[in-house]
Every structure is written in structure tokens, then in C-alpha cells.
UniProtKB/TrEMBL annotation:
<dbReference type="InterPro" id="IPR019734">
    <property type="entry name" value="TPR_rpt"/>
</dbReference>
<dbReference type="Pfam" id="PF13174">
    <property type="entry name" value="TPR_6"/>
</dbReference>
<protein>
    <submittedName>
        <fullName>Tetratricopeptide repeat protein</fullName>
    </submittedName>
</protein>
<dbReference type="InterPro" id="IPR011990">
    <property type="entry name" value="TPR-like_helical_dom_sf"/>
</dbReference>
<dbReference type="Pfam" id="PF14559">
    <property type="entry name" value="TPR_19"/>
</dbReference>
<dbReference type="Pfam" id="PF13428">
    <property type="entry name" value="TPR_14"/>
</dbReference>
């Protein structure tokens, strides 16, 4: 992509790639170029927010992400970035922004995971199950998704699915303790101490 390009999407992709490679100065040049292009205001604010996040400046990140979302409230990537900032600030607006991200990005596991976690914390168990299942399909290597999904199944009176979910975690990561401990705790909560002890005995030493 040439720096004098007028393709906003291509320039945004270039800037994000430069930021991932820690080429902050080069990314800044791309952002300056984008500032003169029509329809780029939301993406420019998003990139400035991303740069502020990388620099550890949460206040500036919040300001820029808020602007970006105001410019492009239907942009899933912007919603996801803004949601992350809001969650770090424990801002109650996070839930509605996460919902936009999850709707716009159905195959982004992190958007689905965030939506599932928030739904679970609000007691919306059916919604939590829906999002967490999607998150697990699209990223089966993130341990906490299994733990949260098992919890959601248990709260949704689906004990067999809860147990299966934790056994899947153990099968996928047999050397990690999380699955064994969660399954043992699940059995204990059901009053099945014998099964809990048996699972803990299977834990890798």
C-alpha cells in the first residue's frame, strides 16, 4: 500500500500491521495521511486509541475509542476495542458495546467470549451459553472459555453438558490442572465426594 493511497481500508490495515510490529512512528505517518481522507474519521480515532493503549495512556485511549465508536457505531472492530477499554474501566456502558461487537463479529472468539462473560455475570444464562459455545468453537485453546461455559451449563440445569465441557478441557489439556480442579469442584457441589477425589487423583503430579 502506498502512503499516498486513498483507500481507507488498506491504510487502516497497514497502520494496524505497523503497530503490531511496534513501528509506531511509521504508523503515525499513515494516520496523518488518513486524517485528510473523507470517511476516515472513525478509523483515525480508532488507530489513535490503539496507539494510546500501546503507550499505556488509558485516558487518551478511552477518549479516542469513544470518538471512534461515535463516528462508526456499527463497526465491530471499533466496538471490540472500545469494549476492552470500557471493561478495564469497569464502565457499565461496556455491556451494550460488547453486544455490538458480538453481533458484528460472530466469528471473533474474543467478542463472543466477552459477551458470554458479561451475560453470565448478569444471570442471562441462555445468552451466555450461546456466546461461549461460539467462542469455544472459534478458539478451542482458550482455557477459561471451557470453565465459563461449564458454569453456564450448570446454572442452566444442564449437568451432563457441564461435565462434558470440563472433560473436553481435560482431554485437550491433560497436563493443566484447571480442568481437573473445576470438575472435582463440580462433583463436590453435587455432593459426589467420591468422584471428586477420583478426578483429583488423576491430576498430573
Amino acid at each position: 500500500v502506498e502512503l499516498n493511497s486513498e483507500d481507507v481500508d488498506a491504510l487502516e490495515t497497514l497502520a494496524l500491521g505497523l503497530l503490531r510490529a511496534n513501528e509506531v512512528e511509521e504508523a503515525g505517518r499513515v494516520v496523518l495521511r488518513m486524517e485528510n481522507l473523507e470517511g476516515a474519521a472513525g478509523r483515525v480515532s480508532h488507530l489513535k486509541g490503539t496507539m494510546a493503549l500501546q503507550a499505556g495512556n488509558m485516558e487518551a485511549a478511552h477518549k479516542h475509542m469513544e470518538e471512534a465508536f461515535a463516528f462508526e457505531p456499527e463497526n465491530g472492530d471499533i466496538a471490540l476495542s472500545y469494549a476492552r477499554v470500557l471493561l478495564q474501566r469497569r464502565d457499565p456502558k461496556a455491556k451494550q458495546v460488547v453486544a455490538v461487537a458480538a453481533e458484528r463479529l460472530p466469528r471473533r472468539w474474543d467478542a463472543q467470549y466477552m459477551a458470554g462473560r458479561l451475560a453470565l455475570s448478569d444471570g442471562e444464562v441462555d445468552t451466555a451459553v450461546k456466546h461461549l459455545r461460539r467462542a469455544r468453537v472459534d478458539n478451542p485453546d482458550f482455557v477459561d472459555t471451557y470453565l465459563q461455559l461449564a458454569r453456564a451449563y450448570e446454572l442452566n440445569s444442564e449437568p451432563a453438558k457441564s461435565e462434558r465441557c470440563l472433560r473436553d478441557l481435560i482431554d485437550r489439556f491433560p497436563s493443566l490442572p484447571e480442568g481437573y480442579l473445576a470438575l472435582a469442584e463440580l462433583f463436590r457441589s453435587r455432593g459426589d465426594t467420591e468422584s471428586a477425589v477420583a478426578i483429583q487423583n488423576q491430576m498430573p503430579k
